[in-house]
Amino acid sequence: MIMCTTVNDDYRVEVFSRATKLVLVDTSRGVIHVEDNPALQSANKRPTVARRCVELGADVVIAPHGSVCYPSYRILKQHNVKIYVTEPGLDLSSISAIPLSRWEVFYSSIIAVLERLSER
């Protein structure tokens, strides 16, 4: 199984819009791909990460709390990617995650709007 998530330089899980790296993890082999987070160069930060995870062939996305706004959710669901939520700051090697809820999507959408407004 291939998991996709975003991390900071210490490989701790970080919100899609603030992480420095996007990583792919093969559950049997460990980290198999690392790249600069494409969201940092995009106006649509969360959906950019969702699209890139799909492009890289992820089966599962581990989304730090506050990362999966509605557009991201739609992109991932459209491609049958399973979505789980974890707390930001956890070490990549010790993630515990729960299935995404509609409340998480709602919360993340509000956070995304507030981030966009603060960037202006």
3D architecture notes:
The protein has helices at residues 45-55, 70-78, 102-119; strands at residues 2-7, 21-26, 30-36, 60-64, 82-86, 98-99. It is an alpha/beta fold and 120 residues long. A six-stranded mixed sheet has the order 3-2-1-4-5-6, with helices on one face. A hairpin with a 3-residue loop joins strand 2 and strand 3 (30-36). Helix 1 packs parallel to helix 2. The radius of gyration is 13 Å and the shape is globular. The N and C termini lie far apart (39 Å). The mean pLDDT is 95.
- Alpha carbon gap, first and last residue: 39 Å
Structural class: alpha/beta
Residue stretches low in confidence (pLDDT < 50, at least 5 long) are: none
Number of strands: 6
Q: Keyphrases for this structure?
A:
120 residues; alpha/beta; 6-stranded mixed β-sheet; 6 strands
Offer a quick outline of the entry:
Helix content is 32%, strand content 26%. It is built from 3 helices and 6 strands. The chain starts with a strand and ends with a helix.
Please give the structural blueprint:
Layout: E1 2-7, E2 21-26, E3 30-36, H1 45-55, E4 60-64, H2 70-78, E5 82-86, E6 98-99, H3 102-119
Parallel strand pairs: 1-4, 4-5
Antiparallel strand pairs: 1-2, 2-3, 5-6
